[in-house]
Amino acid sequence: MLFVRDIGELLATHRRLIACAADRGYRLGKVYIQHPGPPDTVFDLLGSLLESDGLPLVVPTLHHLAMLGNPLDIRDHLNRSDHQVLIAIEPAERTC
To answer: CA 9, CA 32: separation in Å to the nearest integer?
Structure first.
């Protein structure tokens, strides 16, 4: 939510993410939105991911996992838990 102006822009971004994933042969399962304030989203994401059955995680960079600890350790833990961590290769567009 730091880079979108309103809910309409957020929904449009969500539609673009779904289309982008489909174009590459993926199905987008969940999108986690970081709101200003306490970093609860990353803990919700990790809990949901670990409860799922091997869903991959796509992050812009490994730095986005730093809230949980050492990003390399978090990636390795997820990999050992059968969750592939994918790094986005195309930079995100700024929407504002």
So the answer is: 15
How confident is the model over 63-81, as pLDDT tens digits? Answer: 878 878 898 998 898 888 8
Bridge partners of residue 85, in order along the sequence: 57
- pTM of the full predicted structure? 0.56
* HEC per residue, 33-55: CCCCCCCHHHHHHHHHHHHCCCC
For residues 62-79, one letter each, b for 16 or more C-beta atoms within 10 angstroms of the residue's C-beta and e for the rest, the string is eebbebbeebeebbebbe
- Beta strands 85-87 and 57-59, pairing class: parallel
Could you give the CA distance from residue 19 to residue 96 in angstroms, rounded to a whole number? 21
